[in-house]
Specification:
The protein is an alpha+beta fold and 180 residues long. It is built from 6 helices and 6 strands, in the order αβααβαβαβββα.
């Protein structure tokens, strides 16, 4: 899979591409697209992507929540060191997998609530909230599919995507992924 452009992600089966600003204001699908809504009520993988390919600007204090009293912000030098050029993907996450019953809707909602300052358990991916243009980032997703009578495992899908990303970018994970 290629991770350079939004078109690459569409070709790989990702859908949505909903701006953070829309998610914060209340919804993934304002038009009531029933199939899209049904897809979000399943496990799967999601990505946070940045359309703008210019150098990012970082803020010292992002909007992330202080989960369990921990400050989610890191020094700007650390953010710069983790930035990956020539990709639109800044984070790869999962919803469900293993024994987790999380859905895409629930996990994306947690991530957005964390980014709105709530002390929510979505510590992974917190670096995106220190991007100056965080509200312009897009969320896209790919629901898990059935292979025969078995549903793909979202954790395995996430691991595969991160591995593919690392193979394409000299061992670097996406900007906000802090572990494989």
């Amino acid at each position: 899979m290629e991770f350079r452009t939004l078109e690459n992600l569409v070709e790989a089966g990702f859908e949505g591409f909903v701006p953070v600003s829309q998610l914060k204001s209340g919804g993934i699908y304002a038009d009531g697209d029933r199939q899209a809504d049904a897809d979000l009520d399943r496990p799967g993988v999601y990505m946070v992507v940045r359309k703008d390919d210019s150098e990012p600007a970082f803020v010292p204090e992002g909007s992330g929540g202080h989960f369990k009293g921990k400050n989610p912000n890191v020094p700007i030098d650390e953010l710069r060191a983790n930035w990956v050029k020539d990709t639109c993907v800044v984070y790869i996450g999962k919803a469900g997998g293993g024994s987790s019953g999380a859905t895409l809707r629930r996990r994306i909602s947690q991530y957005i609530r964390f980014g709105s300052g709530e002390p929510v358990g979505h510590w992974g991916g917190r670096y995106i909230w220190q991007l100056e243009d965080a509200d312009n980032l897009l969320f896209c997703w790919r629901p898990a599919k059935y292979a025969g009578n078995r549903l793909e495992d979202a954790g395995e899908l996430e691991s595969e995507l991160i591995s593919e990303f690392k193979a394409s970018y000299d061992g670097q994970r996406p900007f906000a992924n802090l572990k494989d």
